[in-house]
């Protein structure tokens, strides 16, 4: 992003303005890069044009924390999104060189105020709001925002850097049909078991029954996701 900001800038604000976001669709990944205000280049994946907000639970307050703490916070964030029955894509935000990457989620169905409040609850300074016309940085502690344009680059399906090791479910089709509009409609189920030293959370949109095999660790839904 390229505009000046009027709010009291957090230490990481310049990094937020320059950050890129990768969003993993069903068949490819989009990278969103800030461009000069008023310019848009590439494809917008939400067919009805609704705002896509990008939120993370990683590194609250701009401080680097332990990986297990970040994973735990991100799982709670996904749990919250699932409880609201919001549609989402896996995402990752960071610098253009991939040195610093944070797991994120690209959510459809929140207002700007609700997205900022959600970020604030997870200790974030800001969240992103993407529309067909703009890419915005929204403060989680005030009403300020920074507006720029955007461009997207596309490549084939691959794992997002720092992505979840769990198998991703097949996306549910949106009301607008197949393709870019396919989103995950979450129904998160939390396992009570522990695997790899940490509690496991299922990120499942299949709505299937759980077999509870392996003490619940490997329970699978009707679409084979877990």
Describe the 3D structure.
There is one protein chain. This protein is of the alpha+beta class. The chain has a domain at 13-165. The chain contains 3 helices and 12 strands; from the N terminus they run αββββαββαββββββ. It has an 8-stranded antiparallel beta barrel with strand order 1-2-9-8-7-4-6-5. A hairpin with a 6-residue loop joins β5 (87-94) and β6 (101-108). The longest helix has 17 residues, at 67-83. The radius of gyration is 17 Å and the shape is globular. Residues 1-8, 162-182 and 185-226 have low confidence and may be disordered.
How does the SSE layout of this entry go?
Blueprint: H1 13-18, E1 20-24, E2 29-35, E3 40-41, E4 52-55, H2 67-83, E5 87-94, E6 101-108, H3 112-121, E7 126-130, E8 135-139, E9 145-155, E10 184-185, E11 189-195, E12 198-202
Pfam family, one: DUF3293
Protein name: DUF3293 domain-containing protein
Region (Disordered): 161-181
Task: Write a brief structural summary.
By secondary structure, the protein is of the alpha+beta class. It has helices at 13-18, 67-83, 112-121; strands at residues 20-24, 29-35, 40-41, 52-55, 87-94, 101-108, 126-130, 135-139, 145-155, 184-185, 189-195, 198-202.
């Amino acid at each position: 992003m390229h505009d000046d900001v009027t709010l009291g800038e957090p230490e990481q604000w310049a990094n937020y303005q320059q950050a890129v976001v990768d969003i993993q669709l069903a068949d490819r990944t989009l990278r969103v890069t800030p461009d000069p205000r008023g310019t848009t280049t590439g494809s917008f994946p939400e067919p009805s044009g609704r705002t896509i907000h990008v939120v993370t639970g990683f590194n609250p307050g701009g401080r680097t924390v332990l990986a297990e703490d970040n994973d735990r916070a991100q799982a709670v964030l996904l749990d919250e999104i699932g409880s609201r029955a919001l549609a989402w894509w896996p995402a990752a935000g960071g610098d253009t060189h991939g040195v610093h990457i944070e797991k994120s989620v690209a959510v459809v169905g929140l207002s700007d105020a609700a997205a900022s409040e959600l970020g604030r609850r997870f200790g974030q300074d800001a969240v992103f709001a993407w529309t067909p016309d703009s890419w915005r940085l929204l403060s989680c502690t005030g009403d300020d925002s920074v507006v720029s344009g955007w461009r997207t680059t596309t490549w084939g399906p691959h794992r997002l850097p720092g992505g979840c090791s769990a198998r991703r479910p097949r996306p549910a089709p949106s009301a607008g049909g197949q393709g870019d509009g396919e989103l995950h409609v979450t129904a998160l189920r939390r396992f009570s078991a522990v695997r790899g030293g940490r509690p496991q959370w299922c990120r499942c949109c299949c709505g299937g029954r759980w077999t509870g095999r392996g003490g619940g660790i490997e329970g699978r839904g009707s679409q084979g996701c877990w």
